[in-house]
Design brief:
alpha+beta, Glutaredoxin, globular, binds glutathione, 2 domains, about 50% helix, about 230 residues, two-stranded antiparallel ribbon
């Protein structure tokens, strides 16, 4: 059985991608949650991941690090990870790769922190550009492939890669055009997303870097997490 190493559910957007994919597709795996250490987790994560980062997948003798490599590895055994239709599959791979290597302003200014609501101080030009491109991409996928998921009627890897964006949209009150906003809300209603969020809220850990990063962009309005340990 696959063994998936992840970081804190509250903070780790990269971990959410393969986790939500496996859960939504009902692919069995053993979850190994390793909380972040203050000031960096290199030493701790190096015990299982050569790059000292989460997520990391172990499958017997095979170690696969990096969320995109993990998804491609799983797809070799479970083809339903990608859309069946070749055109939708090519589009899904492009959109997934764009998410994997882009959207720096969104990542930096709206870090995933599932349990909080933050009021943004300003909507920077970079953030506006990222949100505009995300809306364009989502609307294109929904229209071209008929929805309700980005590349058709099934949840696939491209939806998993944008799942963290749904938590960012909710937490930072980001505004999107109607169809894109409805898609973000739909992602949040998925059972696997509900499970992830509920477990994130129950985590007692706070990690200074992640907390400070969040407060650089705005003001904390609500914190729904359990009291810190
Ligand atoms: N490109 C990598 C990025 C992974 C990544 O940056 N992971 C972060 C957590 S979400 C991490 O492990 N950071 C280590 C730390 O904060 O000490 C992937 O897609 O898996």
């Amino acid at each position: 059985m696959y063994r998936l190493f992840i970081g804190n559910k509250n903070y780790s957007s990269w971990s959410l991608r393969p986790w939500v994919l496996l859960r939504q597709l009902d692919i069995p795996f053993d979850e190994q949650l390793v909380p972040f250490d203050e000031g960096g987790s290199w030493e701790k994560f190096r015990h299982f991941a050569p790059n000292g980062l989460v997520p990391c997948l172990e499958d017997g003798e095979v170690t696969v690090w990096d969320s995109l490599a993990i998804v491609e590895y799983i797809a070799e055994q479970y083809p339903q990870v990608w859309p069946e239709n070749a055109v939708a599959r090519a589009w899904a791979r492009c959109a997934t790769a764009e998410m994997h290597s882009g959207f720096a302003a969104l990542r930096e200014q709206c870090p995933m922190n599932c349990g909080v609501t933050v009021s943004l101080d300003t909507l920077s030009a970079g953030l506006q550009k990222d949100l505009g491109r995300i809306a364009e991409l989502w609307e294109e996928g929904l229209q071209r492939f008929g929805g309700p998921f980005l590349a058709g009627d099934r949840f696939t890897a491209v939806d998993a890669f944008f799942a963290p964006v749904a938590f960012r949209v909710k937490g930072f009150g980001l505004s999107l055009p109607d169809a894109a906003a409805a898609y973000a809300r739909h992602l949040l209603t998925l059972p696997a997303m509900g499970e992830w969020e509920a477990e994130a809220l129950r985590e007692p850990w706070r990690e200074t870097d992640h907390e400070e990063e969040m407060l650089q962009s705005g003001t904390l309005v609500e914190d729904r997490r359990v009291q810190p340990a």
